[in-house]
Amino acid sequence: MNTADYLTLLSALAPEVIVVLTALLVLAVDLLGLQDTPRSYRMSIAAGLTTLGCAGAVGWMFMNPTVGNWHGGMLVIDPLNETVKAVILLLTVLTAMLSVDCKFTRHIGEYFALLLLATVGMMLLASTEELLMIFASLELVSLSLYILVAFDKSSRQSAEAAMKYFLFGGMSAAFLLFGFSLLYGLTGTTYVPRMAHKLFSLGPDPLATVALVMVVIGFGFKVAAVPFHLWAPDAYQGAPLPSAAFIASGSKVASFYVFAKVLLLGFSQLGWGDSNNAVSGWIPLLSVIAAISMVLGNLAAIRQTSVRRLLAYSAVAHAGYMLVGFLALGGDAFASMLFYVTTYALTTVGAFGVLGVVESQVGGDQLKDFAGLARRAPVLSACLMVFLLSLAGIPPLAGFFGKFYLFAAALTNDASSLPFLWLIVLGIAMSCVSLYYYLQVLKQVFVVEADANARPIAVPFLVHAVVVLLAAAVILLGCVPGWLLDTIHAAVTEQGW
Amino acid sequence: MLAWTIYLSFAGALACLLTPRTNPRATRAMAFSTALAGLVCGLMGAVEFKPENGLEVITNVRWIPALGIDFSLAADGISVTLVLLTGIAALAGVLFSWNIEHRTNEFFAFFFALIGGVYGVFLSLDLFLLFVFYEIAIVPKYFLIAIWGSTRRDYAAMKLALYSFIGSGMVLIGMLAAYAVSGLASFDLQTLAQHSFAPEFQRWAFPLVFVGFAILAGMWPFHTWAPTGHSAAPTAASMLLAGVVMKLGAYGCLRVAMTLFPEGLKMWQHELAALAVTGIVYGALVALVQKDFKFVIGYSSVSHMGFVLLGLVTLNEIGWSGAVLQMFSHGVIAGLLFGVVGRMVYDRAHTRELDALEGMGLARKMPFAAVTFVIAGFASMGMPGFSGFIAELQVLIGAWQAFPRLAIIAGVGIVIGVVYTLKTTAKVFFPDNAIAVESLDDHEHDHPLEPISVQERLGAALLILCTVLIGLHPRLLLDLIVPSFRSPLFDGLRKVAGL
Hints:
The structure holds two protein chains of two kinds. By secondary structure, chain A is an all-alpha fold. Chain A has a domain at 294-497. Chain A contains 21 helices and four strands. Chain A has a two-stranded antiparallel sheet. A two-stranded antiparallel ribbon of chain A has the order 3-4. Chain B is mainly α. Chain B contains 23 helices and two strands. Chain B has a two-stranded antiparallel ribbon. In chain B, a hairpin with a 4-residue loop joins strand 1 (56-64) and strand 2 (69-75). The A-B interface holds A 389, 394-396, 400-401, 404-405, 407-408, 411-412, 415, 418, 421, 424-425, 428-429, 431-432, 435-436, 439, 443, 446-447, 481-482, 485-486, 489 and B 63-67, 128, 131-132, 135-136, 138-139, 142-143, 146-147, 154, 158, 161-162, 165-166, 169, 172-173, 176-177, 179-181, 183.
């Protein structure tokens, strides 16, 4: 730990500061200067500023690579954190671009400001190893997201979704805080790595197990793992499209990263628990959660006729897969989980992009609204095929390699007894199930013929560009995973995990 | 040269997709040249190939160093044989789908994506790469059947996709476990084959991987995707499914399951042989009672693929070489049979019911189809002079050495094969009451059937030529296949077999 003067701190926090300033700027410009201009103009300006701000933050991070740890882990900056932050910023930009053509609100400045504030929260979440700071930034993210979900004032569904999200979220925050307070009581510290030492020297303690369960519940809600997933389908369905995309992507990345940090670093000694003293570790707990998430998410998705709900349940299932990655322990866990969550987030944003076009042009997100899309919007359909097959885990797409790496990492953890083999078997079996429902969507798109009077769909240029770029990225990351993998690997190695 | 088959097919798929939707002629020309180029590449590769070298590495590039994955392609005589088969099946498939007018460009795009994946599997030396190509083949199959198929196409397409995916899931589990347990941080097949896995591990890993691949090879009782899939698929896709896709499964069994876990094979040899023979007899018996022309051929495929699996598990060289030869032979013959049934008969008569076809006097209206089917039928029954004979004979000799009783039952399966083939031929083309029926029918539907096109004649001639050539001069392929079993890849397997 080292203390620092404000100037150092400011330069270390510069990316976050840039994003906050952008948020304020967007708000000010929209409220003060653009109230009388057409909405498309306002949208473009706001999205453009957001993009510039995020690009500035990323640019700053790459121009001034910093490494440091200030105020007892309150602010930690290392290559891995910076990679995660860059991914989050990229997802924010993509979400902003998808928002441009949406017509759900007149409060454009507020919308983009909230988007950016959520981003700041996620960035802080990624760059801290201190429980209080984790909680505070998590709340910043959550509060912004609650409002973003409720942003469509004309839609009852949107309000209902936000209310559900808020109630569940508030409850889970309470659990998390309770867990944190127990941890503080036990160890006398809120700095995660030091907490791990203390927990180790304490020896097995039932209270630590209670704290562990509380923490897992709290984060389980954020990542939508079963049985804490109930908000997800409603939030995905009711929220305005870009908000849903952001919850499914950026929020996932940040939550998984901090969840992994707390569990893998903080409870590193408490993996398998101690059966002599009736103390359980997090590995059995997480295996069970991962297993039921994969099973329930995939089985529930089969029954969905709304594509948004389908994506929500598939997100639950994917959360299960990612939790399997935790079991690899150490650096492999971080690397495999981050690769998976990054590619998953990019894929999901792409799928939401296509979904948005279908919703606005055809009028709904039901399976039947996708009928004959291949004829009406061939490029978009091809991209949707890439996204869904990647989610199903078909090579050579990014989703396949993500799953492969995740499973390989979890299996190599203890090669002599293969303790997680059952989980891998379950995961692979469930991905066969998932192929079924993804193919149901693709069947509508490619096999079912459109109505005779269906016209080609006019796809907004920006959405088209974003979707095509994302599809290309998904294919490239599948064919040449080395790009992302090596970056993550190098960053993880530098941590010495 | 061989590697170009893969790249050309994928490039061809893209090129076909980009040809204008309104101009099917351009798409066809593109498809034909892609298939031809693939076959020529395969042939040139086969000529250049020196069988005595064993496994020839074609490309080896680091791909994902973090996991020890390489982009490495290699060929031995088995690969070359199957690459040639793929080339022939692809060319014949294009010729037999000349009449596709609906979404032609997409059809050939999916067609060549499938072909590219198949070439890739046959040439991969890295297990990960092999698996990638293996799964690439799943999606095009689904769409080929779901969009251009006939009877119950939705059901058949989904069933095929899920069966394939489940099979490849089993393979994936075995492959990840092998990777983790070996601790070699490599997916290179040769490296893994030289590692001797613990017998307890092989006891469960071998059947997992073998059955995972064998699902696609139509092994009883996991064969049910095959008849439904074959019958629902458009002609070219049936030809590919029976002709090459089922061989993917058998090839995976030989190349991955058997080389990696030879002791596992020894442990499960008898059970697997029993399943293979059950498939032979069951497929033949069920084919005997089918009412749908395509289902007859579909079940006969299950029966003939049983010989491949039987040959593989004999654990002797003659059985193995018979199995590989049978893969080639069945690929060509099944392609021919499906070509006649799906393209020549079904596309003109618009029915595949044997009873309905009986009354049409097809031999008189379509002599070419009748002759082709008779030749294909003889080849399929295993008449000397056709490739099926020498292949099934080798498998039976191998099986006789390993399990004599099962070999006799398999022999019975051949006899049943003769029965259903003759019965079907007689019923469809030469019914007893043909003359009476014709005079009746001539008044009702007098319209002549569309004549057999040049493309169909060419495709049929190509396939007949291949089966006769190999039947008369099997050494053309056997000289390629047999030395392959001496390469280091098969060391472990030969040791277990005591060779």
